[in-house]
């Protein structure tokens, strides 16, 4: 099997690489490189997303009629590779990769017209209001309540772990509209304006040391008598579980892990060259080399799986349960890279907290980028929890693919 890109694909790769090199603002790349999770501030994210939108490259996975690129799966993969290579931050997947496909499939014409162009133009950002205290893996137990009053709902309750709620314009939100029958049958899917009166957003600081206002990632969101027009309900009342599950397939399968893992692996290799094991570079240690070889094989396997997965997926298709494999293995191997990086820098990884603001002028000890290692390690613990934990993905696979 010949997996090399052909001449046309190589030309496309050069086109993408050159365009990114000219158009990605250096401060965006630098912030992404130095961030614990390749996320950047809202201003820089919008700055970059607007450039991509102007070129028509912000939503490559969308069907062309809604502003997609019409690229085939190899081109999309090349695009992801080049974005990772250039240290692009993660784009707003809540907007582009999650709520958008749900609106395309289940939204009303008015909803499509109102929301999709704003996402494609990078004018509005979304957050995801699924999880609640006590309702994470067991999502169907959620209790945030929406009561119907004529042409609007009144929403009361609490969401938790809501990534980027502090800057989002809109939230797609699961609410309970009935306590009758099975728990899944009383849930509705609402689009909530984050500026609506009665919404309070409080930060949650993670173990990675981020305590700077607006630089944090996750929040708690409280709703007190929040008025939501009925026209902002997607699909039918009490049928939200169907739309919620459809969205989860995109959340789990919407990310090409291979290119970013490959990049992080190269970084790890450079780190090992720069760290000493006695008087020799760590990269020469036989035991270390063995671990690196095993890790590289895992990345090869993920990349192969992803190539198969994406080449079978047509534009606009839902990824299905294969998405669970991609999410589970991609995040687990990503964590392994951060674990080996901590091993490589040893004690230099310890005094990280004070140094971790991008604009900090505190000088790190132990060489360039050593101070990124521990925060990344701590930050990446989240990846096997959010979007359905690895344990939950294994349950999904056992049921859907193995028939257990
Ligand atoms: C950094 C971060 C960002 C997040 N962002 C968002 C967001 O933007 N929007 C949003 O809605 N949610 C978000 N989440 C929430 C995330 O989806 C939940 O944390 C996740 O679903 C797990 O739920 P939980 O925290 O309630 O843990 P629990 O469900 O209580 O799980 C605790 C442990 O038990 C295990 N477990 C639970 N059930 C089973 C089972 N049936 N079989 C085997 N093991 C099981 C889990 O794997 C886990 O190890 C985020 C979480 C984190 C950490």
Give the topology string: H per helix, E per strand: HHHHHHEEEEEEEEHHEEHHHH
Which ligands occur here?
A: flavin-adenine dinucleotide
Give the second-level CATH assignment, the architecture of the largest domain: Up-down Bundle
The CATH class of the largest domain, by name, is: Mainly Alpha
Number of domains as seen in the coordinates: 3
Q: Give the CA-CA distance, first to last residue.
A: 33 Å
CATH superfamily of the largest domain, by name, is Butyryl-CoA Dehydrogenase, subunit A, domain 3
Low-confidence stretches: none
Question: Which strand order does the major sheet show?
Answer: 1-4-5-8
Structure description:
- By secondary structure, the protein is α+β, with helices and mostly antiparallel strands.
- The protein folds into three domains: 7-91, no CATH class; 126-238, Butyryl-CoA Dehydrogenase, subunit A, domain 2 (Beta Barrel); 255-400, Butyryl-CoA Dehydrogenase, subunit A, domain 3, CATH 1.20.140.10.
- The protein is built from twelve helices and ten strands.
- The strands form three sheets. Strands 1-4-5-8 form a four-stranded mixed beta sheet.
- Helix 8 (257-274) packs antiparallel against helix 9 and helix 10 packs antiparallel against helix 11 (373-380).
- The longest helix is centred in the C-terminal third of the chain and has 27 residues, at 286-312.
- The protein is globular and about 75 Å long.
- Flavin-adenine dinucleotide (FAD) binds at residues 127-131, 136-137, 161-163, 218, 382, 385-386, 388-389, 391-392, 395.
């Amino acid at each position: 099997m010949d997996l090399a890109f052909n001449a046309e694909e190589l030309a496309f790769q050069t086109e993408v690489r050159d365009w990114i090199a000219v158009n990605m603002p250096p401060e965006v790349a630098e912030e992404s490189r130095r961030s614990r999770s390749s996320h950047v501030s809202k201003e820089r994210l919008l700055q970059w997303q607007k450039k991509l939108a102007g070129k028509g490259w912000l939503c490559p996975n969308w069907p062309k009629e809604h502003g997609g690129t019409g690229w085939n799966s190899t081109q999309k993969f090349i695009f992801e590779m080049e974005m990772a290579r250039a240290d692009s931050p993660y784009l707003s997947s809540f907007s582009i990769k999650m709520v958008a496909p749900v609106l395309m499939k289940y939204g009303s014409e008015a909803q499509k017209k109102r929301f999709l162009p704003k996402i494609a133009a990078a004018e509005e950002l979304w957050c995801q209001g699924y999880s609640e205290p006590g309702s994470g893996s067991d999502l169907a137990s959620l209790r945030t309540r929406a009561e119907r009053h004529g042409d609007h709902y009144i929403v009361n309750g609490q969401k938790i772990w809501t990534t980027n709620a502090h800057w989002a314009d809109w939230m797609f939100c699961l609410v309970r509209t009935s306590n009758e029958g099975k728990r899944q049958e009383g849930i509705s899917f609402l689009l909530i304006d984050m500026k609506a009166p009665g919404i309070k957003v409080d930060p949650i600081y993670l173990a990675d040391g981020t305590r700077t206002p607006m630089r944090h990632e996750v929040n708690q969101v409280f709703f007190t008598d929040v008025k939501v027009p009925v026209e902002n309900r997607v699909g039918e009342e009490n049928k939200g579980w169907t739309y919620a599950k459809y969205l989860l397939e995109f959340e789990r399968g919407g990310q090409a892990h291979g290119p970013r893992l490959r990049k992080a692996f190269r970084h790890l290799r450079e780190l090992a060259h720069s760290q000493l094991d006695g008087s020799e570079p760590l990269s020469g240690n036989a035991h270390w080399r063995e671990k690196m070889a095993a890790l590289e094989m895992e990345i090869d396997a993920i990349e192969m799986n992803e190539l198969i997965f994406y080449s079978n997926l047509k534009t606009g298709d839902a990824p299905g349960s294969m998405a669970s494999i991609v999410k589970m293995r991609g995040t687990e191997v990503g964590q392994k890279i951060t674990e080996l990086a901590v091993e490589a820098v040893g004690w230099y990884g310890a005094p990280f907290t004070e140094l971790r603001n991008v604009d900090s002028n505190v000088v790190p000890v132990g060489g360039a980028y050593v101070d990124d290692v521990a925060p990344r390690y701590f930050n990446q613990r989240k990846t096997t929890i959010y979007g359905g934990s690895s344990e939950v993905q294994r349950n999904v696979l056992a049921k859907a693919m193995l028939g257990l």
